[in-house]
Amino acid sequence: MITPEDEVLLRRAIDLAAHAVSLGDAPYASLLAGPDGAVLAEAHNTVRRDDDITAHPELKLARWAARELDAATAARATMYTSCQPCGMCTGGIIRSGLGRVVYALATDQLVELNPDSGAWPTVPQEGPALFDEARVPIEGYYRR
Question: What does the angle CA 40 – CA 95 – CA 101 come to, to the nearest 5 degrees?
Fold first, then answer.
């Protein structure tokens, strides 16, 4: 359930997205709030500026959280973001241990506003293959 306190922080993420546009960047931004609601870090999309396809604000903050927060604090932290995280960012958020995400626009709403944002093709994947060979470094790593 989204609370009035969540709405305040979500509005901050939206404001950061608007500011990103004024800097010439794409209109996406996020912030990370600690368990007490204090803002810990903020980021906006710099994909074009950095020439880095991974420079989404959600992924930047997930990496920051993984480096800077202990597991208990991360689990009680909330990410507020102007748009629903994409699959890449969701994976980073999960791996970082963050406990919650609150977003303003859902992916389908974003696609309605910007149809090009939903034009990502799928990439064919084939496998699994070479199990006996591929398992050797994995087993060696986890059995040390």
Answer: 50
CA–CA gap between residue 63 and residue 61 (Å, rounded): 5
Burial class (CB in 10 A: 0-12, 13-18, 19+), 29: buried
pLDDT of residue 120: 81
Task: Name the pTM for this structure.
Answer: 0.91
pLDDT tens sequence across 30-70 = 999 999 999 999 999 999 999 999 999 999 999 999 999 99
Q: Please give the structure tokens belonging to residue 45.
A: 């999309």
Mean pLDDT of 16-27: 97
| Beta pairing class for 100-105 and 78-83 | parallel
